[in-house]
């Protein structure tokens, strides 16, 4: 794998015009001048880390391209390319409002052939805030040919969901928040508080409710991943505490707002693990690596490691507590390093110098 070295480069900015992103200068500085070598440090638990990028504006999701460059979404509506090529693409029509904006990004499983990327974005309509997933063709270093895959997803100032990813069977999964209308999370005729399953072109496969819903009864899920057995896991924001880790099953009802924590009710699934009423993770992204789930904590200001035994969680370890502030996303890069994004400029954090940042480290160093 090649080694990424951003140093500092001039950042080109592209604007979407007539269906294609064209060069234009919107005078937005992404990277401050830095020495040739990237900033390095050692955390309080003696883990060596590297700052891969800094001075970002609420980075939300990371996806690696086949050439090892990163695509990074920023909530105000920018898609960054970081690595061998450094560019910024402004995504039109994005409305940053509260927790909404430009959120998830993922690549089509056949990206090498079709060059499709998918973006989850908040927009404003006559009816108010709403969310959608748009597919683009990322070709010749341009983001072009926008095609709406699904629109009219529930949107609000809070609880916008926003994670998108392809599962091992080739379906596109989309997390949708309850958009602060919690009772609708129990109504499968609406998409509030659900995880959707779609074909790559946006059509609906054989789902359990004859619509896009794969599972429901969620409050605000912002992380999904799959383990080596093909089980789908999600992280979910609880009400006050009781943040959840769930195994997602087709057609299952995860109870919100009827149950939370250890509560049970016929026909509803309790979480595999929750944070308890006295602790808040506010979990963001999640990734699977070597029999553990790694997920970020926004309010928890930590990276958490849930050690698995099949469908059970045997322990939850805490890493980097308060070292970097609020953490939004986590993923494993093609170089085997783990990448996390801070989220200190989202209005709820205390920005440190050069925030927000993307930080990488060797997960083998975690204890």
Describe the structure.
By secondary structure, the chain is mainly beta. It has one domain: Neuraminidase (6 Propeller), CATH 2.120.10.30. It has one helix spanning about 110-115, and strands at about 10-15, 20-25, 40, 50-55, 60-65, 70-75, 80, 85-90, 100-105, 115-125, 130-140, 140-155, 165, 170-175, 195-200, 215, 220-225, 230-235, 245-250, 275, 285-290, 290-295, 300-310, 310-320, 325-330, 340, 360. The strands form six sheets. A six-stranded mixed beta sheet has the order 2-1-8-7-6-5, with no helix packed on it. The protein has a five-stranded antiparallel beta sheet with strand order 3-4-27-26-25, with no helix packed on it. The chain has a four-stranded antiparallel beta sheet with strand order 9-10-11-12, with no helix packed on it. The two termini are about 25 Å apart.
């Amino acid at each position: 794998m090649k080694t990424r070295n951003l140093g500092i480069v001039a950042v080109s900015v592209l604007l979407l015009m007539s269906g294609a992103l064209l060069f234009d200068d919107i005078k937005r500085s992404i990277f401050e001048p830095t020495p040739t070598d990237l900033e390095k440090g050692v955390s309080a638990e003696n883990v060596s880390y590297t700052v891969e990028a800094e001075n970002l504006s609420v980075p939300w999701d990371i996806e690696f391209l086949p050439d090892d460059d990163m695509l990074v979404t920023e909530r105000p509506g920018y898609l960054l390319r970081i690595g061998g090529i450094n560019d910024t693409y402004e995504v039109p029509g994005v409305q940053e409002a509260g927790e909404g904006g430009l959120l998830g990004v993922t690549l089509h499983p056949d990206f090498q052939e079709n060059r499709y990327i998918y973006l989850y974005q908040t927009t404003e309509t006559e009816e108010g805030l709403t969310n959608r997933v748009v597919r683009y063709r990322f070709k010749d270093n341009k983001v072009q040919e926008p095609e709406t895959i699904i629109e009219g997803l529930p949107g609000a100032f809070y609880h916008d969901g926003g994670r998108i990813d392809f599962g091992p069977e080739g379906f596109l999964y989309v997390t949708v928040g309850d958009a602060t209308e919690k009772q609708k999370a129990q109504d499968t005729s609406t998409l509030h508080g659900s995880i959707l399953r779609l074909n790559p072109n946006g059509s609906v496969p054989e789902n359990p409710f004859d619509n896009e819903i794969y599972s429901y009864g969620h409050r605000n899920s912002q992380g999904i991943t799959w383990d080596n057995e093909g089980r789908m896991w999600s992280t979910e924001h609880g009400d006050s505490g009781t943040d959840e880790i769930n195994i997602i099953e087709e057609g299952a009802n995860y109870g919100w707002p009827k149950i939370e924590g250890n509560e049970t009710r016929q026909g509803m699934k309790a979480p595999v693990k929750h944070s308890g009423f006295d602790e808040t993770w506010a979990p963001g992204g999640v990734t699977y690596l070597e029999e553990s789930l790694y997920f970020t904590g926004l309010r928890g200001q930590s990276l958490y490691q849930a050690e698995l035994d099949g469908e059970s969680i045997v322990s939850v370890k805490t890493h980097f507590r308060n070292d970097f502030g609020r953490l939004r996303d986590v993923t494993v890069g093609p170089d085997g390093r783990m990448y996390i994004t801070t989220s200190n400029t989202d209005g709820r954090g205390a920005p440190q110098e050069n925030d927000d940042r993307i930080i990488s480290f060797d997960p083998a160093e975690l204890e």
